[in-house]
């Protein structure tokens, strides 16, 4: 081997050794490959403050959180912060992953100076821990960003840049009121709304309270309010948003004319908190300004929000007769002229009677389907219109419709039949304790004229054949007994033979139905009475009597008489023939 070749080999070996040393050194100082948390050990629940410097918008701002978790801007102004935006920033800080950057160039990656800086202060066991996050340039893929976290440059998602890239006003809360509409127990609205010059203004006055039976107005009228309409309106009030911040008027509402209030809304919550929101319209423009009674801030509001809150008072009126669940109704009382009807739930069934309430002793079972149908119609009854042009007048002070639910009465008086100036026809109606007058249509009056006969159950008696073991039919000096076998066959007592004639009548006898119930005026002794008795396997005996009154077949059971199937008496009498 010549010397020249040897020298070349030595140089080659030296180069390879140097490369190996450089690679091992690089691997020793390079961070491990893979993702890691952007802020190691970070807990958003421990964050007490955030400092944001955003150089694009020359924004220098500090945010702090109070003991209730509510964020406020404390520098450069004192103002509630937008919880959603702060939440987005905390989400990015706590959820973002990062990857290492090898041999980063701070200047080339946009850190001299950074485009934005965030300082996060945590309370860790009574000690303050500070994180500093600086934003550099976006990565070439457009989805990631270079950031310097506590002095270390890493690569993370660009959502952090998206959150911080906003001016100061977009960090401020846009909500004016924060309350649960279902927790409001009282509200009022006052003021007039019309054209900017004040012409054609209509009064929006409305004072309302929430009682045991729902929302009702106390001014300018006394009456029930539509609960859905009230809830929708309260939600509109809660959802009023800031269109612009009027900082120059903060603490000085007269600057924008708010010393002269055009509209005002007041709410009282179950907690006892009361809040007033006042509005003023600039006479030279369509701008509306607002302020809250417990803060110095002044805001500009979108006129559309004012239009939504200026719903005519008439629209709040409840045109539904009652608003109680159908299943809670346990009594109906109807009076039209001299006719008076009661329907009442009694021991898991319905009973019906006519006359005064004291006539309950003369009640009879009501047909469940007929009772439920009447109650369903009354529970969903709506008035034709709210009558504002006519006073309530009545030809009969007694007439009315009433329901009872949960021990509370609902209903009111029926007035005279009329035709309103608006073109409606029907009877006037006024709920008890209210000043509002409504119009009942003819269909509602038909419900009010429901009779006892329409509601009474036609079921004289009802027995289960499977429970029966013995039957007897007696009359005209004859007695027939029938026994039911375990297999369901009816046979004459002591005879192993099917009693076909009796078997054909059993269903009609144990499911006896009335063609009509007979009253006291239909008295007199039954002609050709036949005593029918059924006994069940438990020893219970059910007796009733069949007879005739003139040409009618009549059944007498449990002290009441009913006209029944005209041919039934004659067919049962054939069983007694010698």
Put the structure in a nutshell.
With about 575 residues, the protein is an alpha+beta fold. The strands form 4 sheets. A 10-stranded antiparallel sheet has the order 1-6-10-9-8-7-2-3-4-5. Strands 11, 12, 13, 14, 15, 16, 17, 18, 19 and 20 form a 10-stranded antiparallel sheet that branches. A 9-stranded antiparallel sheet has the order 24-23-22-21-26-27-28-29-25.
Descriptive terms for the model:
elongated, ten-stranded antiparallel β-sheet, single chain, 18% helix, alpha+beta, 578 residues, 37 strands, Immunoglobulin-like
Description:
This protein has 578 residues and is of the alpha+beta class. The chain folds into 4 domains: 35-171, Immunoglobulin-like, CATH 2.60.40; 181-316, no CATH class; 326-455, no CATH class; 465-574, no CATH class. 18% of the residues lie in helices and 39% in strands. The chain has 10 helices and 37 strands. The strands form 4 sheets. The chain has a 10-stranded antiparallel beta sheet. Strands 11, 12, 13, 14, 15, 16, 17, 18, 19 and 20 form a 10-stranded antiparallel beta sheet that branches. A 9-stranded antiparallel beta sheet has the order 24-23-22-21-26-27-28-29-25. Strand 9 (144-149) and strand 10 (152-157) form a beta hairpin. The longest helix is centred in the N-terminal third of the chain and has 27 residues, at 3-29. The termini are far apart.
């Amino acid at each position: 081997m010549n010397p020249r070749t040897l020298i070349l080999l030595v140089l080659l070996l030296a180069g390879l050794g140097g490369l190996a040393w450089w690679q091992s050194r690089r691997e020793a100082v390079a961070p491990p490959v893979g993702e890691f948390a952007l802020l190691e050990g970070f807990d958003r629940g421990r964050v007490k403050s955030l400092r944001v410097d955003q150089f694009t918008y020359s924004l220098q701002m500090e945010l702090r959180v109070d003991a209730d978790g509510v964020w406020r801007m404390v520098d450069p102004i004192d103002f509630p912060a937008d919880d959603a935006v702060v939440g987005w920033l905390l989400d990015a800080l706590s959820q973002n992953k990062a990857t290492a950057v090898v041999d980063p160039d701070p200047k080339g990656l946009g850190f001299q100076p950074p485009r934005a800086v965030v300082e996060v202060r945590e309370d860790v066991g009574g000690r303050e821990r500070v994180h500093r996050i600086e934003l550099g340039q976006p990565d070439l893929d457009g989805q990631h960003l270079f950031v310097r976290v506590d002095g270390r440059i890493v690569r993370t998602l660009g959502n952090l840049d998206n959150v911080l890239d906003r001016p100061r006003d977009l960090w401020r809360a846009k909500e004016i009121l924060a309350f649960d509409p279902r927790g409001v127990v009282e509200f009022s609205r006052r003021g007039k709304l019309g054209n900017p010059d004040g012409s054609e203004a209509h009064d929006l006055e409305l004072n309302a309270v929430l009682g045991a039976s729902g929302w009702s107005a106390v001014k300018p009228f006394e009456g029930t309010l539509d609960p859905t309409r009230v809830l929708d309106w309260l939600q509109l009030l809660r959802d009023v948003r800031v269109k612009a911040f009027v900082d120059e008027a903060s603490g000085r509402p007269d600057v924008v004319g708010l010393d002269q209030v055009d509209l005002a809304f007041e709410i009282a919550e179950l907690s006892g908190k009361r809040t007033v929101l006042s509005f003023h319209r600039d006479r030279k423009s369509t701008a509306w300004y607002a302020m809250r009674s417990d803060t110095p801030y002044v805001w500009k509001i979108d006129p559309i929000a004012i239009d939504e809150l200026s719903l005519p008072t008439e629209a709040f009126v409840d045109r539904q007769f009652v608003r109680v669940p159908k299943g809670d109704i346990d009594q109906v009382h109807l009076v039209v002229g001299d006719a008076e009807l009661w329907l009442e739930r009694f021991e898991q069934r319905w009973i019906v009677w006519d006359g005064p309430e004291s006539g309950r002793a003369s009640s009879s079972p009501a047909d469940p389907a007929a009772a439920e149908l009447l109650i369903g119609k009354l529970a969903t009854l709506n008035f034709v219109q709210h009558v504002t042009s006519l006073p309530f007048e009545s030809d009969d002070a007694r007439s009315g419709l009433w329901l009872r639910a949960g021990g509370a009465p609902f209903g009111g008086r029926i007035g005279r039949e009329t035709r309103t100036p608006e073109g409606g026809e029907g009877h006037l109606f006024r709920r008890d304790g209210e000043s509002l007058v409504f119009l009942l249509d003819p269909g509602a009056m038909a419900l009010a004229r429901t009779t006892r006969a329409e509601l009474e159950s036609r079921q004289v008696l009802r027995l289960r054949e499977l429970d029966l073991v013995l039957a007897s039919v007696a009359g005209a000096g004859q007695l027939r007994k029938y026994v039911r076998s375990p297999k369901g066959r009816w046979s004459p007592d002591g005879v192993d033979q099917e009693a076909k004639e009796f078997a054909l009548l059993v269903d009609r006898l144990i499911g006896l139905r009335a063609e009509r119930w007979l009253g006291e005026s239909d008295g007199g002794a039954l002609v050709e009475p036949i005593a029918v008795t059924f006994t069940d396997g438990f020893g219970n005996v059910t007796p009733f009597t069949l007879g005739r009154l003139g040409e009618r077949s009549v059944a007498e059971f449990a002290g009441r008489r009913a006209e029944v199937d005209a041919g039934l008496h004659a067919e049962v009498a054939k069983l007694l023939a010698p």
